[in-house]
Design a protein that fits this description.
This protein is mainly α. It contains 15 helices and no strands. It starts with a helix and ends with a helix.
């Protein structure tokens, strides 16, 4: 590498370091925030936002690194919760009421959900684009009606009185316990997914995203890579389902209905579907709008009441897509570039991304991603 190349790489490195510093600051802020906020804010904004962020991260991982926009993540999120609900309840609720230990219920929930994700991924991964989207949406709809109509496992009334491990306690009395657990799981999920994206498997997955025909002709098994990525995303979604059932203590088919399927997609888009960080940013924004829209002055006068929450979210979604297709993360990136000396970012190649995920564009090709996959990817 020449001296000119070294000088060109330094600005990008400085911007990356600055963004990582922002991430560390965000985590540090989340660690101390419960000390300065109410129990309601900790439980119904922060904890709920973190667990929804984990579910959205599974969607963003598939979209950003695999080019697969999956609408089945809400189903996998819910399956984990339903399995735990059936396993740990002891009576007085619908479901199997097996009365098992809560930790055994977690193992069953995560295990069954991951296996289900493998089989669903094996079916859906043979398609691409809109067809993949519609197949995964079909999975979600089937799951909704299955748990609604098969009363052995739930019924539309859902499963109540779900027990959690003793250290979690009751969310109403000890909201900080589940919050810090959700924060720890969020950090682990983020770090692991970022790491996997840089492994030979992750690089080859990005090559398949950019040009699956080329990767297949080079000997890469496209179907296997996509199936394994879908399975990994299902595992991540199952963790969110565990936290959700511990937080809510009940689950019903409405938790995985069409509205929730679209809500998870909206969370990913308004946060930034090309960046893993966008999962949690979008989730926090979504939850805050849901909880505090009634307090915004002037909205009631123009008819935007709490009952019209979907309308407000739709307007926010439209504004974000028009102003910044990369969501709030895209807006944040622009602010970072404005705050840094121009020489730091003008030397970056157009479209370069110092964050977690490359841009997802149909038919797009990334020479750096594909090249890395060609030389280091698993065949």
């Amino acid at each position: 590498m020449t001296a000119a190349d070294n000088n060109a790489s330094r600005p990008r490195g400085r911007v990356v370091t600055f963004e990582r510093a922002l991430l560390v600051f965000a985590v540090a802020l989340l660690l101390v925030l419960p000390a300065f906020t109410s129990d309601f804010f900790v439980s119904f904004v922060l904890t709920q936002g973190l667990l929804l962020g984990i579910a959205a991260a599974s969607l963003i991982f598939l979209a950003a690194y695999g080019g697969m926009v999956s609408l089945a993540q809400t189903l996998l999120f819910g399956v984990s919760g339903f399995v735990i609900g059936n396993a740990v309840t002891t009576g007085g609720s619908k479901g199997l009421n097996l009365g098992l230990d809560p930790w055994l219920g977690v193992a069953l929930g995560v295990g069954i959900t991951t296996v289900l994700a493998f089989f669903l991924g094996a079916v859906a991964s043979r398609s691409t684009g809109l067809y993949f989207l519609m197949i995964t949406l079909t999975f979600g709809v089937i799951g909704f009606y299955f748990f609604g109509q098969v009363t052995t496992f739930s019924g539309f009334g859902g499963i109540n009185q779900v027990r959690a491990p003793d250290f979690v306690g009751t969310p109403g009395q000890f909201p900080e316990r589940l919050y810090f657990l959700a924060l720890a799981v969020s950090v682990i999920v983020y770090v692991v997914l970022r790491y996997i994206a840089r492994t030979p498997f992750g690089l080859s997955l990005q090559g398949i995203r950019d040009d699956h025909v080329r990767m297949s002709s080079m000997g890469y098994n496209v179907w296997v890579h996509r199936t394994l990525a879908f399975t990994l995303a299902g595992f991540v979604a199952s963790l969110a389902g565990v936290l959700f059932i511990w937080w809510n203590r009940q689950i019903d088919p409405a938790s995985i209905g069409m509205g929730e399927i679209l809500a998870l997609l909206i969370i990913a888009v308004i946060g930034g579907i090309n960046r893993l960080e966008g999962a949690w940013v979008g989730a926090i924004v979504f939850v805050m709008v849901n909880n505090y829209v009634r307090d915004v002055p002037g909205l009631n006068q123009i008819g935007l009441t709490e009952a019209r929450f979907n309308t407000i979210i739709g307007l926010i979604f439209l504004i974000i897509v028009l102003l910044s297709p990369d969501g709030f993360i895209g807006i944040g990136q622009r602010v970072v570039r404005l705050l840094t000396p121009r020489a730091w970012h003008t030397s970056q190649a157009p479209g370069s991304d110092s964050g977690s995920g490359p841009s997802v564009t149909a038919g797009s090709r990334s020479d750096s991603g594909s090249g890395s996959a060609e030389t280091t990817g698993n065949k």
